[in-house]
DNA sequence: TTCACCACTGAGAGCGCTCTCTCGCCCCTG
DNA sequence: CAGGGGCGAGAGAGCGCTCTCAGTGGTGAA
């Protein structure tokens, strides 16, 4: 990895600007950084000189002394063998067949896929609409502040160490961590290293950290109330992994509310938040409870899977069976029938997460705080 | 934005390690950077000292002299009023209704969505599965090299300037640019500024740049051949924006192949790559050609929209009408019936794009090159 | 008039690292 | 045994910036 010499042709420095403007380096620096006290005339002169020589400040030099990089790490943390034990599933439908184009007609095309991507946990993370929403939320908040997120992935011992090192080296001023594994050691490591971090969803093991989270239980309640209001009494649930707070709480909220209204028995199956697992779960539930008239899935992807199976089995939605999802992801609106779902304001949560980190950066000694977001029921056609 | 003083408690520097090891700063530096010539004993001593004092190199100091940040910018560039003139559509189905939870039961929850995100072009970009695939591909390639992508968004004059400034300031060594607007000035600006950049898809206006792209036309041909092989002759197409090369070429490849096989008339409608536009297009096509028996959509999202409309209209897929999509995105596999589609190896393309950038960084004077990827037909159930 | 006090600007010391240059040492050769 | 070559290590000069501290000139109060 050589040095990019090409246009290293001596970019202008503060010194150059100072010379051009006939002032000192310090004065130019003051102007560049929103001068607290530089006379208007000099300010003009310096501004002109900056424009004339085409000066841009060198981030590295600035960071060296200010100890601020102006970068925020966005860490997607997925430990292998995690709650998403989905590795065995969905590796392409069995009926898939790839017809390779035998002879590209003359074009100098190159088939350059060296390490053909196996469909790993990693790919699944980025394929989930959840990821895009997080990014959109973070970016929306950071952009006006002229900050940018550095995307990092932690999936094993090595990459976790790398993330920690990068942070310690000052590659970023702090980390926004989306951890989707209850046994993930990263949160603990970050705290231990004293690195500024804010989490999406509370860590599974209690830690004195800042985080944003959702009133999951309440979401489950909303779904239950909706089904109850429709007179559904033979309901079932497709839960998320019970090792995750989100998985347990959504289910609990649903079941508790049902129980409170006299529906004591709520059969459920555990999925892993993928569409395929939703399909499997729905099949199993129909097997067990052929008469069911309502289903609550702990996320939209699983709900969509349930929708497919119900259609395949000739059940009409919502006439025969009502289906309620969770998240209000893009999948909910594009499903047919459109999915009634419990909204999780992911973008707003992600934005808030970023805001919490900046607060922590500005006031290192402020006590850790958490922000809980409320859910809403988005009523569409499925239930 | 004050300084995070908390643990600024004098991180150990090279100097400290040198003292601890009883050697000079230079020697420690050599060891840290894969010493070309340091005696094994000394190496051991230094390594131990590094571990003992808990040293991590300071990136800023290093970057200041090496002029390498070890960061790659990943720029999503969307000019407003672009090909995706989707602003008018899909802003929530009209039948949506939000039931706000009136009284959260006591919990100290906070409804903190200050700038409630309007569904902007930005959100749409990140909601598209395409984005996740790009990220996954880039990350897959960069990660083993211990490099990280800095995510930037360029959507208007101001943010474009910001991206350019950041690059000039050395926030990143180069840029990977995904530009989804034919009129986007960013590619030109980057070239003009002499900044290292590689593009996903060729710039609409010819520029001497590196890029990866797809044999779009060939993909259209594959789709046509598939339909022809099934004896479909009343075919139609849902095209992408014709202002984009991808939009035109996919359509051209499809129509040309049809023509070559005696199907001279191929009605088509232009969509904007969203599911909604696919639905609208399908409705229009059915209106115009009630007898059609095959549809080629320029991407999977639009194909899924077509699927919905066909079902709604009582057409069986694939018995009555065959549907072929493009991209082989997650939407294709999760649709019902599963979507036959032309695969675009986005992950591999993104990885290659990153590789091209690193090559450019290593050899600034190497001539711009492009890499074209081939398509494949992925046969599933829809056609 | 004198002195304290601003308000503004300049000088200079580093931030932590890399890299060139130099030096010392050992080994090989004539 | 002297001289040359090569290798390993140290010294020191910055990279471009910020920030403290000192200095200058002007003003108002004593």
Describe the structure.
- The structure is a homodimer of 383-residue chains.
- The first copy, chain A, has 383 residues and is of the alpha/beta class.
- Chain A has 3 domains: 44 residues, Orthogonal Bundle (434 Repressor (Amino-terminal Domain)), CATH 1.10.260; 129 residues, Response regulator (Rossmann fold, 3-Layer(aba) Sandwich); 130 residues, 3-Layer(aba) Sandwich (Rossmann fold).
- Helix content of chain A is 41%, strand content 16%.
- The first copy, chain A, is built from 14 helices and 13 strands.
- In chain A, strands 3-1-4-5-6-12 form a 6-stranded parallel sheet, sandwiched between helices. The first copy, chain A, has a 6-stranded mixed sheet with strand order 8-7-9-10-11-13, sandwiched between helices.
- The termini of chain A are far apart.
- The N terminus of chain A is likely disordered.
- The structure holds a DNA duplex (30 and 30 nucleotides).
Mean pLDDT over all positions of chain A: 86
Strand content bin of chain A:
15-25%
Number of domains of chain A: 3
Structural class by helix and strand composition of chain A: alpha/beta
In DSSP terms (H or I, runs of 4 or more residues), the helix count of chain A works out at: 14
* Largest sheet features of chain A: 6 strands, parallel
Q: Order of SSEs of chain A, N→C?
A: HHHHEEHHEHEHEEHEHEHEHEHEHEE
Largest interface: A-B, 117 and 117 residues
Per the CATH scheme, the topology name of the largest domain in chain A is Rossmann fold
Low-confidence region ranges of chain A: 1-8, 81-118
CATH H-level superfamily title of the largest domain in chain A: Response regulator
Biased composition (Low complexity) (chains A, B): 104-118
InterPro entries (chains A, B): HTH_LacI (IPR000843), LacI/GalR-like_sensor (IPR046335), Lambda_DNA-bd_dom_sf (IPR010982), Peripla_BP_I (IPR028082)
Domain HTH lacI-type (chains A, B): 12-66
GO molecular function, one term (chains A, B): transcription cis-regulatory region binding
């Amino acid at each position: 990895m050589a040095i990019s010499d090409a246009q290293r042709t001596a970019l202008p420095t503060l010194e150059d600007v100072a010379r051009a403007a006939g002032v000192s380096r310090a004065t130019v620096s003051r102007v560049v950084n929103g001068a607290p006290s530089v006379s208007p005339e000099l300010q003009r002169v310096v501004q002109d000189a900056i424009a004339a020589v085409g000066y841009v400040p060198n981030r590295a030099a600035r960071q060296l002394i200010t100890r601020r990089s102006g970068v925020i790490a966005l860490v997607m943390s997925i430990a292998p063998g995690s709650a998403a034990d989905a590795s065995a599933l969905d590796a392409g439908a069995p009926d898939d067949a790839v017809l390779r184009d035998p002879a590209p007609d003359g074009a100098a095309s190159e088939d350059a896929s060296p390490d053909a991507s196996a469909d790993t946990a990693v790919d699944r993370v980025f394929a989930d609409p959840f990821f895009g929403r997080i990014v959109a939320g973070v970016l929306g908040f950071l952009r006006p502040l002229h900050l940018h997120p550095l995307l990092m992935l932690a999936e094993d011992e090595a990459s976790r160490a790398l993330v920690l090192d990068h942070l310690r080296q000052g590659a970023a001023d702090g980390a926004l961590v989306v951890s989707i594994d209850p046994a993930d050691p990263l949160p603990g490591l970050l705290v231990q290293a004293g690195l500024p971090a804010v989490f999406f969803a509370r860590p599974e093991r209690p830690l004195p950290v800042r985080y944003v989270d959702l009133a999951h239980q309440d979401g489950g309640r909303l779904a239950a109330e909706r089904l109850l209001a429709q007179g559904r009494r033979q309901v079932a649930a497709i839960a998320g992994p019970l090792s995750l707070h989100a998985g347990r709480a959504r289910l609990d909220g649903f079941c508790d509310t049902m129980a409170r209204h006299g529906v004591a028995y709520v059969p459920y199956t555990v999925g892993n938040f993928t569409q395929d697992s939703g399909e499997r779960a729905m099949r199993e539930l129909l097997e067990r409870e052929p008469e069911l008239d309502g289903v609550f899935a702990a996320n939209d992807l699983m709900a969509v899977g349930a929708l497919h199976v119900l259609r395949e089995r000739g059940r009409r939605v919502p006439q025969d069976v009502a289906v309620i999802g969770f998240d209000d992801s893009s999948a909910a609106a594009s499903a047919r029938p459109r999915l009634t779902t419990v909204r999780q304001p992911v973008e707003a949560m992600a934005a808030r997460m970023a805001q919490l980190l900046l607060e922590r950066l500005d006031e290192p000694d402020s006590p850790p705080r958490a922000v809980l977001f409320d859910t809403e029921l988005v009523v569409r056609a499925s239930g």
